[in-house]
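In the previous chapter we treated chains in isolation. Here, by contrast, the input contains two separate entities that must be folded as one system, with a combined length of 628 residues.
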Amino acid sequence: MTEGGVTGTRSLESFLEGNTRPVSRPQAAVDDGVGPAAGRTGEVIESSTTTLVAEARHLHEAPDFGAFVRVESDGRDIVGVVHNTRTQSIEPNRRPTAYGKTEAELRREQPQIFELLRTQFEVFVLGYFDGTSMVHLFPPQPARIHSFVFPCTPAHVLAVTEDPQFLRSILETTGLPTDELLLAMLRHALDQRARGERGSRAYLAQMGSELSRLLRDDYDRLSSLVRRMTTWEQA
Amino acid sequence: MLDLSAVRLQIDSMVAQQADGGTAAFEAHVHAAMAELQRWSGDWEALQQRLDHSRTSWLLPRFASGPLAKGVMASPRPEQLSVAATDGSQVFPDRHEISPCYLLNIGYVLLHYGTDERPLLSSRPRLYWRDEDLFPQWGGRRTSINRELIGFRRSLMELTELTELAAASHAAGHRTVALTDGTLVFWGLEGRPPDFRQASLAALESAFDLLARRRIPIAGYTSRPGSYELVNALRVGLCPVEGRADCDRCPWLGQVPPCSSVEGVSDAVLYRRVLGRGERSPVFESTSRVLADYGPHQIFFFYVHAGDEVGRVEVPRYVAEDDELLDLVHATIVDQAAKGGGYPVSLSEAHERAVVRGSEREGFYRHLEEVFVRNDIGVAASRKSLRKRSVSV
C-alpha cells in the first residue's frame, strides 16, 4: 500500500491534474485567452434577470464603474452596466490583514496572498441585442452562470446609449448608487461620441432634457446632476 | 449536544489547579536544567562519551556539534528562493456509511520569493476503494485498513509528493527548499511486519536519495515540540554514579533520583531561554530505534527560535552535514515563520489546501450515497447514521 519510489520527473503542471478548482497555477499554465474566451474581462458567477455578479479575470482588473459590458449567453448578447466592484478573500474564514508593505514588496515576499483574493463586479442588466439592434427590455432568460463578460465595443456603447431609455431604467431601480452611476454612464457614452461624428454637446443636451423631464418633481437633484454635467462641457 | 456551561466550570477548575501547582516547582526544574546545560555546553564531547556508555530507558541524542548553550544566528535568506510544502488530510472509512472507501487529500504549495512569479497552490484528492486498498496483505495476513495505517500512508505520501514537487520546481530552474509539517522520523514503522517496513522504507529512501542527489534540502518543522532528548542527556550528566549511568541498576530505585531535578522540562523550554530570535541550537542526531533502518539518511535535528516559539527542525544527514544546505534551511524557516506570524507560511497554506472541513466531509458522503442509489446499489448506511442526519422532535 505504499506509493513506491519517487520519479523526480513530474512537471509543475502535473500538480494541477485531477484538480478541478486549482487556486492558482504556475505562470506557464496561465490561460492567455485565445478562442471564444479571448478579450474577456470576467465570468458570471451569480445571475438573475436584473443583475449579475462576475469574477474579474485578473485581480483588481474589473471594468470601470459605469462601464458598459456584454455577456454572451444563449446566443444572445446581454448588456449591462458595472455598478459595484469589490475585492475580497476567496475564503470566508480568512480575512486580509494589514502588512505595512507596498504592493510590489508584498508580491515579492508574500506572493500567496494575491492568489487568495478575488475581484468581483456587479452588473445591472439594461437589455440585450436582437441582432444588431438594442432592446431596452430584460432578456427572456438571465445570463448563464460561467458565461464570459466582455467590455462593450464603441459601437455597442453608442447603440445602448442612443435611446435615453437607459436613464429611466437606472432612475427607477432602487439599490443602485443612482446619480453617481448615471453620471459615470453618461461620461462613458460621451467618450465614444467625442471621437465619433456626432457632437458630444448635442448628445449632452439631449440627455439633459430627458433628465429634466424624468426629474421634473425633484428640482434639487436635477440641478445637482446638471451642474456636474456642465463642468464636463467646459473641460 | 454539549452542555458548554457545565464544561466551562470544569475547565476553570482545571486551569486554576494547574496554575498554582506547577509554576514554582517547574521553575526550579528549568533553573536546574539551565545550570546543567551551561555546565556541559563547552564540554559536550565529554557528555557524549558518558552517553555512549550509559543505559537509559529514555531517548538520547547524539551531539553533532557544540557548544550546547550557544545559538547560531540565521544568515539572510537568498534573495530568490522557492519554498515547496505539502500537507495532507483524510476522510476515514466510516463504518456507519455506505462504502468502506477512504480519501486522502494532499495540499501542494510552491511559493517563489524575490520574483513576481505566481505561486502554485493546489490540492488533489485520491479515493481508495479497491480490495488491496482496504484489505492490504502484510506479513502473509490480510488485514483490514484502520485509522493508524491510513494516517501512516498519508504521512508517507506527504513526503513523497513533497519530493516530487520540490524536484519539479528544481527542474524548472528554481532554487528550492522543501518543507513538511512534523517529523521525518516515521515512528509508525515500529512493530510492523517486515514487508510493510521494507516497502515504506524503500519509498522514503528513494525520496531522500533523489533530494540528496539534486542537493535540494528538505526539513520537517514541528511547532511546540514536546521532545526531551537534550534534557534526557542532561539527566545522564546529573547521575552521580561513577563511569556509566544505568537506569536498570539505579541506586535510587523507589526513591527520588538526583536526575529528577530537571524532570518535566522540554528541550524547547530550555532553548527558549538560550536562543535569541532567529537563532538555532547546535545540531543533534536522533537515535530513534526506527532510524536503524534509514540507511544513509539518518535524521538530525535542531531547535530554532522562530519568533513566537522555539520549533524543532528535522533534516536528513545530507542536509545536516552540508553547511550551505543547513544554513539555507535555517534561514528559510526563520523567514517563513516571520512571514507566517510565527509559523512557516508555506506550511499553513499547505494545510489550508489539504484540510477537509466538516461540511465537505458531509458532502462527500452525501454524493457517495446519491451515486450508489442512482446506480441501484443497495445502500446500507446504518440506521444510526441516518438517524443522526434527521432527528424528529
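The radius of gyration of chain A is 22 Å. Chain A is about 30% helix and 25% strand. Compare these points with the single-chain example from earlier in the chapter.
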